[in-house]
């Protein structure tokens, strides 16, 4: 199997672009770096296509490793032929590989195996041939030794034939197809669990499997795992048995037809049905996982790409009832200025005192916006804020923000390091306020699974979920770009090529030596070498740097190209950035070479037009329906 060609065919991408992308991945390049800075090499593939190439590459690589195991097992059994090896080499599906391997796979001591030990396999072969004109007569020759009766001989032969039928590729594929098209998923309440109220919709449910939404399937599997219901997947048994009978033993003699049909019926009920049902269940689970994880990722992307609130002091409020509402005041950069507690909600309902405290803090720190967590008492807190008479104070905007995971962050090691002198309630309110100032910068501090962006997060494949959410965060962080001199270690860790350890090293270097003045200074950070620098530099920004390109997405490897453009235009880089007329005078075709094409040149010009631009849009109030 040519892995590159298979991937190209599946994704409808030219094989040379697939090969080039795989080469970059194998050399350690990250997906954000490849999609942004190697467009000419990959044929302008985006992050989605590159991520798909990476996933399929792993899938096919695992398949190739499995083939090695299968071939070795068949060879050790002395049954590997050149034709079989050639067929296995060409396989592109793990299901097809396992079907081929099934007859050769070491088995526990099955009924068929015990029949073989009695010497009955020749009888089974005789019955399956076209020359058996009387099954009983054929079987009578084998009534000897440990085979005491005719019935014992026939039962043993039937067990062997049933196993052959269950391992026949044509039979398996046709039964598999039936399950795919016509399977019905059914549930039933477990005895003694009739009083359950959580899963009442699934106490006695029947529906087409292929039309079952992912959230419903996952709910049923969760209920089954909790011991509330039983779940089964089935097809019409009569149709299934007829399918096996029509697909297997088509050349047997008329005299043996009924015997083989009976063995085929046994093959379905005893061997095929459990096997294909398990396979179908696993396939349905994988499909449901994929759909659920896609929703997770899309919701996470929407949260991370939420617009930042620029240039305003923010009050963060973590609402509550009995323990009150925790209040923090933050400057425009998210630094904690002061914290307090107010009790405008029941049971105290001390609205007047709470209003006085809020107005005092808003005036003292010039608060321009208030972030209210959307959890317990959120609605009442928002209503309280809307009832305040602000008098001569500039009325702050009120925003309801998603507070999911704030408690996780407040108890984390990162929060303890940042606010060692404050308790978890203050840290949680800070997190809520910062989510308004810059959602991405705050949310990356929390495990994506704790942000509450989807259902059944503990029921789906955890490796797939982790990889997908990790990819989503990396894509978002790198598409926005990060301020090298203010980013937290958690945010820096998602930058292309960096990771948690180097992120800590960058912050330690910044703390000891002051703000970075150039991107090139990154090379002074311990353990950050040229390879990581190449991967990361283009995604890190230095506002106010002497070289204006250090605050853009223009990669340092293209600085000389921009300088040449400026020189050809008769100006400095600063003037080229400031002048639309000068940029329009540049003919990009003059700068195309073996490494740089129009896609990269177009990106460069877009950066020069709006250096350091943030792709996120302006913030808007979030209200309850």
Features:
625 residues; five-stranded mixed sheet; disordered C terminus; three-stranded antiparallel sheet; 29 helices; flat; alpha/beta
A few lines on this structure:
With 625 residues, the protein is an alpha/beta fold. Helix content is 54%, strand content 8%.
Low-confidence segments, given as residue ranges, are 619-625
Instruction: Please tell me how large the radius of gyration is.
Output: 33 Å
Give the strand content.
Answer: 5-15%
* Largest beta-sheet details: 5 strands, mixed
Question: What is the CA–CA distance across the termini?
Answer: 55 Å
Q: Tell me the number of strands.
A: 10
Name the average pLDDT: 94
**Structural class, from secondary structure content?**
alpha/beta
Strand arrangement within the widest β-sheet reads 6-5-4-7-8
Tally the helices: 29
Helical content class: 40-55%
Shape: flat
Can you describe this structure?
This protein is α/β, with parallel strands linked by helices. It has helices spanning 3-11, 15-26, 31-37, 39-42, 47-76, 82-90, 94-101, 111-117, 121-128, 135-140, 150-167, 169-182, 214-225, 237-247, 254-304, 351-365, 378-387, 406-410, 413-418, 424-437, 439-443, 462-480, 489-492, 499-513, 530-536, 559-568, 573-578, 580-584, 598-609, and strands at residues 184-189, 206-208, 229-234, 313-318, 325-330, 336-342, 367-373, 397-401, 482-483, 540-541. It has a five-stranded mixed beta sheet, with helices on both faces. α12 (169-182) crosses α15 (254-304) and α15 (254-304) packs parallel to α22. The longest helix is centred in the middle third of the chain and has 51 residues, at 254-304. Mean pLDDT is 94; it is low at 619-625.
